[in-house]
C-alpha cells in the first residue's frame, strides 16, 4: 500500500492493483477514488492544492525510476499521472476526482537511456506558487519543470536541486526545506529563482546521535508539520547476535527513529566599527531546535515501518 499526503490531514492510498482511496482524518471518513491507470512500483507524489476550492487540488504520482519509452514529447505515459479534483464536463455542476495520464519527462524518450539502468528522480518540489513542479534526475539528465495547468514540460536545466527526496515549502520562512543531497541532514534553499542552480542557505547538524553498528536500511524521510516544524524519520537495521558462524535471524531488529525539529527565525544586530548600534546592520539567521526522539523497533520486516506522513 502506497500513501500520498493530500493536504489538510488527508491522504490518498493506492494498493498493488492501482485502486485508490481518500482517507480524511479530520472528517473521519474514507472515499473511493478513481483507479490509477497502472500501479506504481516505487512512486513519489506531489500535491498542489486548488486556489479556489479548499477540498480540491491535484495529486501528481510518478514512478521514481522511469523506464525509457518510445515516442516523442506530448505522448501520455502510464508512469506518470495525476488525480485531479474538477468538473468532468463543462455543463456538469459538481466536481469529482478524475485520473489523468500525463506526458513523461523528456529524458524518458531519449534513446541513450537504458532500460537496464533507468535514471532515478533524486529530488522533487512544488515551486512558483504551485504553477510548476520541479524534478531533479541523477546522472546527466538534470532538472525538469512541469506546468501543472497545461501538463507540458519545459525549462530543462543541467543542474540538480541540492536536496535528496521531497522538498517542502514553508511560507512563514519563505524557504524550501529538505534533506541535503550531501549528507541527508536538514537544509534550506530559496527556490523562487530557478534561472541558476539553487544554493543552500542553511544546513544543520544531524538531529540525533545513533549507535555506529546500526546500518541504514532505507532513505530517510522528512514530514512537514507546518510553521517550520518537521519530523525527520531515519530507518535502520540491527543484525542479530552471531550463533557460531551463522547470524541469529530471530534477533534481527528494524529500528525507526522519529525526531521532531523546529526551525526558527532570529535576527542578529551587528554594530559598526564605532560601536554605534543605531546604525547597525540586521542579519537574518535560522536556528534548528531539536525536540524529542522516539524509536520503534520491530522483529523482521512484517511489522516494520516503511513510510511516515
From TrEMBL:
Pfam families: DUF1668. This is Uncharacterized protein. InterPro entries: DUF1668_ORYSA (IPR012871).
